[in-house]
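sorry for the late reply, my laptop died twice this morning and i had to redo everyting from scratch. anyway the thing you sent over, i finally got around to it. pasting the sequence first so we're on the same page, its 119 residues, then the predicted structure underneath. double check i copied it right bc i was rushing
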Amino acid sequence: MIYGVGTVSLCVILGQGLGELLGVLAGLDTNVGGVGFSMLFLILLTNAMKKKGKLGKSSEAGINFCNKMYIPVVVAMTASQNVVQAISQGMIAILAGVAACLIGLMLVPVFCRKGSVNE
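ok and here's the structure:
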């Protein structure tokens, strides 16, 4: 279980770091997509570990433990972000949010098809 929680922690650190870096590169004083990158890293890492047979039952239990806490953690993290300040930075913040949502929506059918092939 500890390895699973450690894996989640590593993904959070990497995702938050990337989000902070993107914020600096965009000239914003905020994290840009850190939570999303963290989840993406977690999905990619756990899938790679499963394919190689290196994800043990206890590690998987640790990841599932964090899975159950995902919604409250994301709600707490998003509540700490200043949406008004992001919007006041200009149209680029609104366009980035809309683009991210549209890309996510367009990828849903792709992932659904991929999931049904593997099962």
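The two ends are 26 Å apart (CA to CA).
thats about all i looked at so far, will dig more tmrw
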